[in-house]
Design a protein that fits this description.
The complex is a heterodimer of chains A (39) and B (565).
Chain A: H1 13-38
Chain B: H1 3-23, H2 30-35, H3 42-53, H4 56-69, H5 80-98, H6 103-110, H7 113-146, H8 150-197, H9 205-214, H10 233-250, H11 252-259, H12 264-298, H13 307-345, H14 351-378, H15 391-399, H16 404-440, H17 446-470, H18 477-501, H19 507-527, H20 533-552
Helix pairs in contact in B: 1-8, 1-16, 3-8, 3-11, 3-12, 3-16, 4-12, 4-16, 5-10, 5-12, 6-7, 7-8, 7-16, 7-17, 7-18, 7-19, 8-12, 8-16, 8-17, 9-12, 10-18, 10-20, 11-16, 13-14, 16-17, 18-19, 18-20, 19-20
The chains are: A mainly alpha (39), B mainly alpha (565).
Chain lengths: 39, 565
């Protein structure tokens, strides 16, 4: 894969996957906080 | 629905495909017809993937699901981001490098012709039935509540989508889905805003959430390892991962979406966009259901949302029993509403007693609804889908302002059209590329294959409408779609995982392994009562295991298959 294939705002694909997983972790953390607050 | 609603409805569902037809006018080449062109960017791919997955059942049933059981269903999507990353890292580069039109074409290149045909056949069987259900499910609900003719509704939803999908191919599917999903999101956001706005003035949004939480509707995450719990973090991660990996990696209706445009970068970003937005989007749809639930704590709901079924039971002489239940339900509603209002303003020391009272009254209301359902079954007025499927659309029709009602009904049609167009596009392409071209006309011109794909897409559309016309034989529509997917997805995913990770396994071994695994799953389906999500895991694991055993024993001396062009 060439550098041209990489999205400019992610840097590398590994970082893009890590970013997606970090976002998911944040979403689950927020959902868990929501559950604790309102259940 | 009044005249304004019909104008909004007709304008919305006509404008998007007409714009799509104008944008895709001309005579596309075969690659353009099957994969779109380079103008399709990651944003369109991302929205197209989102729209393909989110069919009409999502928008009709999800809020009702939250109304009945809370928002815990969100956990079913937890495995999806990881599956999408796996698809980005493993599946997409292979499909793009080999420049395949369909996922099953890759199976032909990696294994042999018969394995390719098997993969295509399993997809065609499962997806054609699913397309029929996708058209039928909203049609039965809308026709029941709006008094429309069922067959006319089916043809309205199905006929129009066949026409524009046949004419425009992949590009028009992606293009129309982009605008259809935007209409859907705007409509759902409006419904959310109005549901919150219609709550009592003295109730803050935080208080509203606290009440919904007290009544057990807001447990989004459950880390319990108790296997009897239906939705948990762990079941969502494991089951959701396998289901999503099969769906996004090996289902042509999705593969065709992210291969549109032909750029690896656009495909990957489009899929990662879905990995990030899917959970929040589903959360908001489920939260909308919780808000509708809260709304109906202050505004009396019907005892049974499927009013046509309720009316049928009344006509069949069950009036006295239903009236008695209705009186109990009204009484419980008034007491519950008063208790909730008291709870929202109660001091800390009074709160636990009121909470207990509200929960008990809610349990009583549920019990009455359950008795009503059983009475309707006894009366032979049993509806073909769950009562919760009617909750959201009843709220829309009864409590939203005119214009918005038309928009929300258009949302259901847009969701039907976007999901169906993607599936018809995939069915037509797979039949043309994986069956017609290799078996019937191996060396015709590109123009011939474009015409053949159009004819086959139209034929599959008619098959889907025919299936929709007979779908009333299916007892539970939403479950039927999920069960159908789970019965076939495991074997299809197994074929691809063997292709990627078991390099020593050849075509004959994996072909017979998949046939045996699919037979095993079908036997289990007809003879056992295990949860249907397990079929994904069993089917996939069986293909991997049998392929390895067959390669080590029966096909030990088999030569590598010739790679096809």
């Amino acid at each position: 894969m060439s550098e041209q294939d990489l999205p400019p705002f992610f840097g590398t694909w590994r970082r893009a996957y890590a970013f997606a997983i970090a976002m998911f972790a944040l979403e689950v953390a927020l959902l868990y906080a929501f559950t604790l607050r309102f259940s | 629905m009044n005249r304004i609603d019909y104008i909004v409805l007709i304008a919305t569902i006509l404008a998007i495909p007409l714009y799509g037809l104008w944008r895709t006018r001309g005579h596309p080449s075969l690659p353009q017809y099957l994969k779109g062109d380079a103008s399709i960017r990651w944003g369109t791919i991302g929205l197209s993937v989102l729209a393909t997955q989110a069919g009409p059942i999502t928008f009709l049933s999800m809020p009702g699901q939250a109304y009945e059981s809370g928002i815990g269903f969100i956990q079913n999507y937890f495995g999806q981001p990881f599956a999408l990353i796996a698809v980005c890292a493993i599946f997409v580069p292979i499909y793009q490098r080999l420049k395949v039109y369909t996922a099953y074409e890759y199976l032909g290149q990696r294994f042999d012709q018969k394995t390719r045909l098997l993969g295509a056949f399993l997809f065609l069987v499962q997806r054609s039935i699913a397309a029929g259900i996708t058209i039928y499910a909203p049609a039965i609900i809308l026709s029941a509540l709006l008094g429309w003719d069922l067959n006319l509704t089916i043809w309205l939803a199905g006929g129009f989508v066949i026409a524009y999908t046949v004419v425009g191919g992949t590009k028009i599917v992606s293009l129309t889905q982009r605008y259809q999903i935007l209409v859907i999101l705007i409509g759902m956001a409006l419904a959310f805003g109005i549901a919150v706005h219609r709550l009592p003035d003295d109730l803050t949004f935080t208080n509203a959430l606290s009440i919904a939480g007290t009544m057990g509707k807001l447990q989004a995450v459950d880390f319990s390892i108790d296997p009897s719990r239906r939705y948990t973090f762990w079941s969502g991660m494991l089951g959701g991962f396998f289901l999503s990996l099969s769906y996004f990696g090996a289902d042509q209706s999705q593969v065709q979406r992210y291969l549109a445009g032909g750029s690896l970068r656009a495909s990957r970003i489009g899929l990662l966009f879905n990995a990030i937005v899917k959970v929040p989007m589903q959360f908001l749809i489920l939260l909308l259901g919780a808000m509708v639930f809260l709304f109906y704590q202050f505004e009396q709901p019907p005892m049974f949302f499927n009013q046509p079924a309720y009316q049928r039971a009344l006509e069949r002489g069950y009036g006295p029993q239903l009236t008695a239940l209705q009186m109990q339900f009204d009484d419980v509603f008034v007491h519950k509403r008063d208790a909730i209002q008291a709870m929202s303003t109660a001091s800390t020391e009074n709160s636990p007693a009121l909470t207990t009272q509200v929960r008990e009254l809610d349990a009583q209301a549920r019990a009455i609804r359950d008795q009503t359902r059983k009475l309707l079954e006894q009366a032979g007025a049993n509806p073909k889908s769950k009562d919760s499927d009617y909750v959201f659309i009843t709220f829309v029709l009864d409590h939203l302002p005119h214009g918005v009602v038309g928009l929300l009904v258009a949302v259901i049609f847009c969701a039907t059209m976007s999901a169906t167009s993607a599936v018809l596009n995939a069915l037509g392409s797979t039949t043309a590329v994986d069956l017609y071209r290799p078996l019937v006309r191996p060396s015709a011109s590109d123009h011939h294959y474009v015409i053949a794909t159009k004819v086959l897409t139209a034929a599959w559309g008619l098959v889907a409408i025919a299936i929709a016309s007979f779908a009333s034989l299916v007892e539970n529509l939403v479950e039927a779609g999920n069960i159908l997917g789970s019965v076939f997805y495991g074997s299809i995913l197994g074929l691809f995982l063997v292709a990627f990770f078991m390099r020593n396994v050849r075509g004959s071994a994996v072909f017979f392994a998949a046939v045996v695994a699919q037979t095993l799953v079908l036997i289990l389906f007809f003879t056992s009562s295990i949860g249907y999500l397990w079929y994904n895991v069993i089917g996939c694991a069986a293909v991997l295991l049998f392929a390895w055993i067959l390669q080590q024993t029966v096909f030990r001396n088999a030569q590598p298959a010739t790679v096809e062009s």
